[in-house]
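Batch 3, record 17
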Amino acid sequence: MRVAAGHPPRTMRNTISLPSNRYQLLNWTTRTLIHLLALAGAAAFLVPFLWMISTSLKPMEKIFQYPPQWMPDPILWRNYIEALTVMPFGLYFRNSIYVTVLSVVGQILSSAVVAYGFARLRFPGRNILFIILLATMMLPWQVTMIPLFILYRSLDWINTYYPLIVPNFLGGSPFFIFLLRQFFLTLPLELDEAAKLDGCGPFRILWQILLPLAVPGLTTVAIFSFLWNWNEFLWPLIVLNDVDKWTIPLGLNGFRDQYGTDWNHLMAASFVASLPVIIIFFIFQGYFIQGIATTGAKG
Amino acid sequence: MRSRQAQVGQAADELAAGKRPRMSGIARKEAIAGYFAISPWLLGFLIFQLAPILAAFYISSTEWRILSAPEFIGVRNFDKLLFKDDLFWQSIKVTVIYVIFRVPVSAVLSLALALLMNQQLAGRRLFRTIYYLPAVIPLVAVSMMWIWIFNPEYGVLNSFIRLFGIEGPQWIHSSRWALPALIIMSLWQVGTGIVIFLAGLQGIPAHLYEAATIDGANTWQRFLKVTLPMLSPVVLFALVMNVIGSFQIFTQAYIMTAGGPGNATLFLVLYIYRNAFEWFHMGYASALAWVLFVVVLVISLIMLRSSEHWVHYEGRIGGA
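Prediction for the assembled complex:
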């Protein structure tokens, strides 16, 4: 094995990433040990899911049993129907979809335009404004929740979806702006230059040239945005009062208040509430990983 | 307003004089487009972040029961929380303990799992999926799941512990074990950290390891002298974001323990929520929120400052 003298040029460093022969010294025992560790870890991570699903299919009397039975017998599929009909989960589902879809649209549109401004257009104060944007990532948003509640109350927006949706159209999230800015920076500037010569204005360049190329980045944003808005609990808890306005997480919380120890139904409802994000996760895994790798965004 | 010709003329003069030209018409157009492009964020920042933070500071100097008008009381809210309110100090204590245990343990755990997955591992993608999945589930659903896992009689955790002939604790029903229980549960959701560290590990150039191996470094030395320094910027970032996120813990405590038993899990955000939205003490709650804001800000800054001493930035590589 010969190692080239000196370091590769800086730009090449990030491209060398695959551990090609780095660990070929590992012997058979070590590799077995590594696999066993990974398997043990995976088992520990999976047990809570299996426990939830197993409980959700059991009859009540089999739940309070020691030692616990992992394979439900009989399997009660109707637990799911019962859980989803004793409270209007269909309605909560629709509410969640409504809020989430509009929020996602708002976050994509506004983050894309803002990211384009920071990535491609030169204007005085751009750097300092971008630093401010990055700094807001560190802000615990709870410090704003009381004044915002008072603001929305004076607008008569409490118990409506506006407080959940409107802010997403104004800038979305610093994480998404950062992610899309990074993405735009990877697209060649010649694209803009050529379009400019053809008489394209800056926003037509964004809309017709850059956005179609940025679809992977936009997809990543869409997925995280969906996830965060779908899972959000504290803010809807503050601004939504009416039972029929509830989103899925509020519905789940309300379900527990009423049917606290119906563990099978509670687990069935929890599983159904998680199902959309689980499905999205399995379809778009690669985008999740990419998004976290570029921004370090929380899941 | 000056005519266009005059502008062009002036720009030409400045160019001729070797000065940097003032903003040309094209540049000005671009700048206007730029401000226009970032205006949604700028507006959002002013309306939904900056103004509320300042407003919260003003509200913290009032007694405001929401239905009546706010009444200015100066620093009395801060005086109360610092010197007269045991619950405030309880919430600080509980929150700080949570952060102190959760952040380092989850960092070590996610680094360990990331290192594991950076090896020649069959089915790496599948493992990554399994480790990351808990981090995407709604926290409310996760909380429901773990209430049942922590059930002292029939929960899966104590059933497992019983296999060793030990009776497990009462977990979230015990004032002594409720906080550790929530910390344990948070470790189940380390997936994000794993993915961040894994991306960082894969960005470390292979030639550094090769060079170290040729110099006779063993696995442990390679980890200490190559992996850790090269990964330190990622570690700093993950730690800061994790600290900020951990200070904001709310949902688990609201759903699983309602802050109890005996205020053992009364986290700061839960205490703010109760003051504001259950008892309608908007002024006092705003004072508490400002404490959260300042604490998070100061700790983040200290961590970023300390990074000079332990974070290794590329371009300053010595040895290797």
